[in-house]
Amino acid sequence: MSRVGVLSWSIRLLTAAGLGVDAVVHVVLAPTRPPAAPGQWSQAGLFYAEAAVAVVVAVLLLATGARVVHLVAVLVAASAVVAVLVSRYVDTGPLGPIPDLYEPFWYTSKVVATVAEAVAAMTAAAGVLLGRHHAVAHRGQAATP
C-alpha cells in the first residue's frame, strides 16, 4: 500500500473512531435526559438521532472513503462540537421544537464526546483535503503524455 493509501486509511479510521465515541456517549447519555415538553422534541431523541447519524457516516466512510462522505463527516462532527459548546456557554432557551439544551458545566462524558467530535472533524477535513490533492494529482498525471 502506498503512503497516500496508508494515510487515507489512517484518516478514515480516526474519523470513524471519533464518530463512534460520539455515538456511544450519546446513546449512554440519552436515557438520562429530561422528558420532552409539549410541542418539543425530546433531548433523548436528539441524542439518539446524533448517535445514529454518526454511526451511519462512520460506516459509509469506512466502506467508501469517498470525499463527499468525508465532507459529511466534517459537518456531523463539527456541528456536534458547536452544539455542545453552545449548550455549555449560551442559554438560548428553547428554539422552536428544540428544547433548552443549556447545561453550564463539564463532566467526563461531555469532555470525551467533545474531544472525539473535534478529532473527527479535523481528521475528516484532512480527508477532504487529501481527496482533493489526490484528485488533482491524478488529473495532472492523466494529462502528462
Please characterize this protein's 3D structure:
- The chain is mainly α and 145 residues long.
- The protein has four helices and no strands.
- The chain has one domain.
- It has helices at residues 3-29, 43-64, 67-89, 108-143.
- Helix 1 packs antiparallel against helix 2 and helix 2 packs antiparallel against helix 3.
- The longest helix has 36 residues, at 108-143.
- The two termini are 25 Å apart.
- The model has no long low-confidence stretch (mean pLDDT 91).
Taking all residues together, what is the mean pLDDT? 91
Helix content: over 70%
Largest sheet composition: none
Give the tally of structural domains: 1
Spans of at least 5 consecutive residues with low confidence:
none
Radius of gyration: 18 Å
State the end-to-end distance.
25 Å
Structural class: mainly alpha
Give a brief outline of the structure.
This protein is mostly helical and 145 residues long. It has four helices and no strands.
List the topology elements.
Blueprint: H1 3-29, H2 43-64, H3 67-89, H4 108-143
Helix pairs in contact: 1-2, 1-4, 2-3, 3-4
Search tags:
mainly alpha, about 140 residues, 4 helices, elongated
